[in-house]
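User:
I would dearly like some help making sense of a protein record. Take your time, and here it is.
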Amino acid sequence: MFLSELKQNVSRLNGIGQTAASDLANMGIHSIGALLTHYPARYDDRMTSRPFHPVPAEGSVNTRCRVTGHEWIGHGGKRSLKVIVEDDTGTASLICFGRNFLERRLSPGTEIFLSGQFQFKYGELQTGTFDFEEVSPDPVDFGRILPLYPLSGKLQQKTLRKAIRQALNDWALNIDDEMPPPLRERFSLPEKSLLLRQIHMPASPGEIDQAREGLIREELLHLQLTIGRKGLEKRQGKVRGAPLPENRLMALLASLPFSLTGDQEKAVDDILRDMNGPSVMNRLIQGEVGSGKTLVAFLSALPVIEGGGQVAMMAPTELLARQHGENAARLLAPLGIRLAFLSGQIGQEERRLLLEELREGNIDLILGTHALFTEDVRFKELRLVIVDEQHRFGVKQRLSLAEKGLHPDLLLMTATPIPRTLSLTAFGDLDISTIRTMPLGRKPIITHLAKRGNEFKVYDFVHRELAQGRQAYFVYPLIEQSDKLTLKDAETMFRFIEQQAFPEYSCALIHSRIPEEEKKRTMARFAEGSLNILVATSVVEVGVDVPNATVMVVEQAERFGLSALHQLRGRVGRGEHQSYCFLVFDESLTEEGKKRMMIMKDNNDGFVIAEEDMKLRGMGDIAGCRQSGFMKLSIADLFRDRDILLWARDEAENILRLDPGLLREENSCLRELFHRVPPFDSELISQG
């Protein structure tokens, strides 16, 4: 019997009535199997003696003592019992607020085991938070290591411990191993049933360590096998044809006034190898803002088009999609590539004609937004799907576009660098190409921090840059004033900047509520240099490329995540002039907020920033993504357990390379690992 098969309801356990079952359900625990994988968050060591004197540094006492007397504090109905106790090292007081009924149980002369957090107060050692048990030959909660579990509602530790103890005794004795014996033996790990007993009822700290290692290895192996299988499934079904022609690709390279960086060349080689291979490509290009990912995507599209296929390129915003369209027209149209642009803003008749041309195969490359998902968008021969800023799209959206062709290759792009740990998990079913090298001539952006109240010094600096013919961004967390939040907003600050701070310069405002055509005209004016200052929200985080803009000012910077700040900073530094980023933060910044600001000040490398972001925030919201159950691991921590994660990935790859016949009868443990439905989903959903 495997743990995943223990589907009996927790209400079958003694002490788990309707209320306790409801509290467990609030934590996602419905079955006995789920209860057994509700692992302790920490432990209370009641084996090691910690007497009254000297008091341990953390104030934690665990001792055998005797009640010597009672006192009362307070008056009338507010009187509280104080119990005086002593052990071999000294005396202490137990303040029984709300527990005067302990007068009888803790009568003078009673011998007890006592545990609690003590401190010196009013000239004595005392505590108001304690647990005790009368001395007996077989104590229930003393002389052992007690697990402390996450709780919900009115659920108590004692109730949960009792239920888990029964589950271990009545249900877990015959649980089969889910770790293949060779792996278990390699690390000297005991059977699964013993690992569960050790994690819930450890006899020593060493047993806790052994149980944690075994359960973490098993869980991460499940995760990596699931991801590996998804990757294999996505790569099936491709019909290999003749090698793709590269004449147009070479023609575009010859027309460029610069050479590709080494990272760009390697990314193109990776993509061409995938597209010419026997399996469907499923590749992610990750690269710094401005590192040239879009050019790599265009180069990748040319062999597909020359070979008779069609390409769809999708971006999350019309602003970014239009910029891709303009770049494609400049670079690809001279090579005879037939281009089209599709968004929700296109009129019905124009849309009808465009979709007809697409179905007939008269469009080679179509660029657009979410409008490409709609049912009436059909292709004659879709062979490559390119998704920019892929984390802003849902998995179903990406798949719905890919399903418009017969197993087309998939190329994803992101300017949000992915930490190595995350790339092995959330993106573990993708091959990854990394572009870290910036184009020649780019200068590192200098980042300054400024407290709110000192922003006029920042404005003086911006004045000097504008006087030299440069341009600047001012970014704010809100569009308009809020009754609930005392934050600067873009609309109010636009009026201030235009009328008071920079009246001699031309300014414009852009945010998500402004009509697309107006946003398009504003961005065109800023790009051509007729606007000096662009006031915005984070709508300019992606898709804005103005080489003459040299200053990015982000006010209330503490309201933005590290990824967003790095993206915003990447809007400048795209030309030959030195560029600057000013992060203006509130004086009431938390310690974590200060760390985030210093990370931005000290680092220009997005990959370093992403790693630091993961340390601060954990795995739940990294790379701008929410997880759909993905990070709900029972015991493993993807950052802390990175070494085991690497081991699990290698072992999963070895298992998946085996002849499938070996997975049928010869090794039931391996078969369960391979076919198990895990308690997580390795797909991502968009942030929205």
